[in-house]
Specification:
By secondary structure, the protein is α+β, with helices and mostly antiparallel strands. It is 44% helix and 29% strand.
């Protein structure tokens, strides 16, 4: 994971608080130092270096669930000159997702769950297709089923399409992509 992130000019950091995790994708220090002015504090500079975050929680067996809550890629923080190194935001999201899948697999989880949020715009349908291409399957639409949706509404905090994925299958599929990125970086 580290080699693939470094190939994109990034470092990954995972923080846990009990079962809750947050993964940060930051500019690698050498590029971060070059892009940080001397007038900012170290905390401000560190925040400025975060180009993406992903959070959720891991419920190990007997539950065995990775709950992917949010993933944010801050396109506005990726500078023009970094776009060739960091490539696509799709690639950054794959790194974050694969990292959480790896952590979940090591904890014994077999199932991954997420909500493709529906904010009432045309993007929701695209998001469901995107996650489908990644390997997730639709479970149900949350928001139009009255009291039956109450547990999902409380857990997810919104309406959308509930989707599940198999941790091992997703790792096999996307782990291979990450390994290829790392191998390509070593050859350069």
């Amino acid at each position: 994971m580290e080699a693939a992130a470094n190939a994109r000019g990034l470092t990954l950091e995972t923080r846990f608080f009990g079962p809750v995790f947050k993964i940060y994708a930051r500019r690698a220090r050498e590029s971060a130092v070059a892009s940080t002015s001397t007038s900012t504090s170290s905390d401000d500079a560190e925040d400025a270096d975060v180009v993406a975050t992903h959070d959720g929680f891991i419920a190990p067996p007997p539950f065995g669930i990775l709950h992917m809550d949010s993933m944010r890629v801050y396109n506005s923080k990726v500078k023009t000159e970094e776009k060739t190194t960091m490539r696509s935001t799709f690639g950054i999201a794959i790194l974050l997702g694969t990292m959480s899948l790896l952590e979940a697999s090591e904890a014994g989880c077999k199932k991954c769950e997420l909500l493709a949020i529906d904010d009432g715009n045309e993007y929701a349908e695209k998001l469901v297709r995107y996650y489908g291409r990644l390997g997730f399957k639709t479970v149900r639409v949350v928001g139009d089923n009255g009291l039956m949706d109450l547990p999902d509404l409380l857990v997810w905090g919104g309406v959308g399409t509930r989707m599940n994925g198999d941790v091992d299958a997703l790792l096999e599929k996307w782990g291979g992509v990450v390994r290829k990125q790392a191998a390509a970086a070593k050859r350069q």
